[in-house]
């Protein structure tokens, strides 16, 4: 399915257009592919980009004689990219296609003026001629959604990621997308978790989206998940900064339907971890323009989010994604066991609690609290086990 939708989207035309601007041959362009490998969890868990999609992109490019292709990414603070790369199957892509993987946690960085906000960006990003962003369409416990715009956060060093959380996430995410231009977007909408960025509750949709405008892409995602654009401040800010347009009313939205190919066509096709073939052939192309929901009724997207009630139990100040991202699923586990309701106070998490005292906290930043979960970050299981013991004892 990946190569077919890239052909329908005419990715090669976009690469040739950029090559003309750079006065290069298209097949000599250094093309970067940026997946989401937030943590060492398989794609079926709903958090990371399916390697089959990236494999399809690489094959599409290599079939057009592109020899200068790299994959680049960094996991969130607390996990190693090298481990995520292996667990998610990207080491096998390196071996099979002879395409290097650049670990941005090991890269140098430089300060870039991003529309008035100076941010540290991994130096290797500047080497690229063309950047293909391959985010996972999923929920996020701090920003409600994560897709095209937020996925660029994997191209900054860990120290800058922590800084982002001190700044409140939304504003630096918007400004980062001025400093890093993504040329093409391939969204993994196979089975993203619509509640937690670290996965665990995948919603199977078996779709791939492509776009050229990250703001338009994320606006569409907001509408799909029943959010208003204003519910995601970085989306509004990014449009104001000129990163892209949120005008779905006049957007050219195309739906491509797929049907199973013949046995011969399907031979050698890889399967998603959910067990469903993602190598299909185009059956129908339909212009859906203003009616963005037309033809999507077969996908049951829940309107309510598990995260809303769980968030009410948390007092978050400048928390990193990993700490907060592990806390929310841990609370969900406690809720499933009937223990969540026994909480007698808010749980503090975040860099803003350094040096402060309180009753119950998560992470080393709350080390002066009466009760706190050690770690930077503590894992989901560590948080769950500590809080379970606390709730039973107190």
Helix content: 25-40%
Low-confidence regions: 261-295
| SSE string, helices as H and strands as E | HHEHEHHEEEEEEHHEEHHEHEHEHEEEH
Give me the number of helical elements: 13
Could you say which structural class the secondary elements and strand pairing correspond to?
alpha/beta
Strand order of the largest sheet: 3-2-1-6-9-10
Round the Cα radius of gyration to an integer and report it.
Answer: 21 Å
The major β-sheet equals: 6 strands, mixed
- Principal-axes geometry comes out as globular
Average pLDDT level: 88
Number of strands: 16
Structure, explained:
The structure is a single chain. The chain is of the alpha/beta class and 394 residues long. The protein is built from 13 helices and 16 strands. The chain has helices at residues 2-9, 11-22, 51-62, 81-87, 90-97, 158-167, 170-179, 214-224, 233-240, 263-266, 307-311, 321-336, 380-393; strands at residues 31-35, 69-73, 101-103, 109-114, 117-122, 130-134, 138-140, 144-146, 184-189, 207-211, 254-259, 281-287, 314-316, 347-349, 360-362, 371-373. A 6-stranded mixed β-sheet has the order 3-2-1-6-9-10, with helices on both faces. Strands 13-14-15-16 form a 4-stranded parallel β-sheet, with helices on one face. Strands 4-5 form a two-stranded antiparallel sheet. A hairpin with a 2-residue loop joins β4 and β5. The radius of gyration is 21 Å and the shape is globular.
């Amino acid at each position: 399915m990946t190569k077919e939708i890239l052909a329908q989207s005419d990715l090669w035309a976009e690469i040739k257009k950029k090559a003309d601007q750079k006065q290069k041959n298209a097949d000599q362009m250094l093309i970067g592919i940026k997946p989401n490998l937030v943590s060492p969890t398989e794609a079926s868990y709903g958090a990371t980009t399916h390697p089959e999609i990236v494999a399809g992109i690489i094959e599409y490019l290599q079939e057009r004689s592109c020899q200068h292709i790299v994959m680049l990414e960094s996991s969130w603070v607390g996990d190693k990219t090298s481990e995520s790369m292996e667990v998610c199957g990207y080491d096998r892509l390196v071996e099979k296609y002879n395409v290097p993987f650049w670990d941005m946690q090991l890269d140098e960085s430089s300060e870039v003026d991003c529309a008035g906000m100076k941010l540290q960006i991994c130096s290797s990003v500047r080497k690229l001629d063309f950047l293909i962003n391959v985010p996972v369409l999923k929920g996020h416990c701090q920003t409600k959604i994560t897709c095209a715009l937020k996925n660029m956060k994997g191209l900054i060093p860990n120290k800058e990621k922590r800084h982002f959380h001190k700044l409140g996430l939304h504003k630096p995410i918007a400004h980062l997308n001025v400093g890093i231009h993504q040329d093409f977007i391939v969204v993994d909408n196979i089975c993203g978790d619509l509640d937690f960025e670290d996965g665990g509750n995948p919603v199977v949709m078996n779709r791939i989206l492509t776009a050229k405008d990250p703001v338009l892409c994320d606006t569409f995602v907001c509408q799909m998940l029943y959010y208003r654009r204003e519910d995601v401040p970085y989306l509004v800010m990014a449009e104001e900064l000129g990163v892209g347009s949120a005008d779905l009313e006049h957007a050219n939205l195309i739906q491509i339907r797929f049907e199973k190919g013949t046995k011969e066509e399907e031979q050698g096709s890889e399967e998603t971890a959910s067990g469903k073939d993602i190598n299909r052939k185009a059956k129908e192309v339909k212009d859906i323009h203003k009616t963005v929901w037309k033809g999507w009724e077969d996908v049951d997207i829940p309107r309510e989010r598990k995260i809303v009630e769980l968030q009410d139990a948390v007092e978050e100040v400048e928390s990193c994604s990993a700490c907060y991202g592990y806390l929310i699923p841990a609370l969900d586990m406690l809720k499933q066991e009937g223990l969540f309701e026994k909480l007698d106070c808010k749980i503090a998490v975040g860099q803003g609690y350094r040096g402060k005292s309180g009753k119950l906290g998560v992470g080393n930043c709350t080390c002066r609290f009466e009760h706190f979960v050690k770690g930077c970050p503590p894992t989901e299981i560590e948080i769950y086990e500590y809080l379970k013991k606390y709730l039973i004892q107190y």
